[in-house]
Amino acid sequence: MIRAYKFLMRPTVGQEQALTAMLRDHCGLYNAALQERRDAYRHVSKTSIKYGQQSAQLKEIRAFDPERQGRWSFSSQQATLRRLDKAFQAFFRRVKSGETPGYPRFRGVNWFDTVEFPKDGDGCRWDSTPHDPVTRVRFQGVGHVKVHQHRAVVGKVKTVSVKREGRKWFVVLTAEQDRPEPLPATGSVVGIDMGIANFLADSNGGFVPNPRHGRSNAAKLEAAQQALSRFPCVRRDKRTANHRRAVEKVAKLHGKVRRQRLDHAHKTSLDLVREHDFIAHENLTIRNMVRTAAPKPDPDKPGSFLPNGAAAKTGLNRSISDAGWGVFLTILHAKAESAGREVIAVDPRNTSRQCPRPECGHTSADNRTTQEKFHCVACGHEAHADTVGATNVLRAGLVRREAQPA
Q: What tens digit of pLDDT does each residue of 139-159 get?
């Protein structure tokens, strides 16, 4: 299996300048390749240029511009061209499926923050000084950069990437390793129901509170964004140091919220994986859930619109995004795979409206009287609505597991 590691780098001033130049030059290569594809399609009888054609030009490009392109790794430049090719493949796939196409866009220097080296030893070398007590990673054109390695890397390093986040630099490794030993069996199964009031409720009656990291930092973020909005829109070369600091402050606050949300998802999923052999959850289409409310034209007044609850829907969308369900489910599946646990997603329809009692099973919208209270109109069963949903999710998950072929 493949596992990723992310470590903080501590470059010197000169190395940081070299890393910045590497990102800038790879960004220029990406944009130039995108421009070539656009021009070929528009002006040369709708000709499509592929990755192989652009990769074959790298040798000439490096010889023509040795100062900006010739000093970096050839394989990392190929990876940048593959990155553009994947963007076009995704674009054509969305066109064929009828989705919003999203044509690949040019990247600004501040929006191009990752350079990948497809193979350890080709333009880069992880821990290239084994006799040095300080861990270092070597990049072509940069040198040996110190790394704060907070955990051991298990397995053979396959790829190495440089990533910039604000003023910090990280090295991201992917290592191929043997499948770890599964955790001891506990004999416990659980279903989880994710929500807004509580982050999740389980079928055993437990609850995990919703930390609402975005809401708790909303005041600081609003003040920082207001301070940033006071700067006029000017050209990049005319922007002041105060403008740069305002941008960095907003980015720093967003990064803090992202790390808090990620930390909560890791801890919550780890607890579930350690305590249960089987976990069932709702198969949520989060992208559809956070869509904006569709406008309702007023038939009596052309050009006017009827109330559509857009304000309430916006608040709900913000709460769903703040909860971070998608990140949590991704981490839960990854940890369960490493631990030898089983995770199944089930259809979420009517899970909070169906009576959980086996002898009843009545389904009605009237069963859920409030956000928290469940009262079956057929048998009178009362419970927390989220616990009822988690119980029905577990039951559906067990049925689906039994129906799966061995």
A: 999 999 999 998 889 889 999
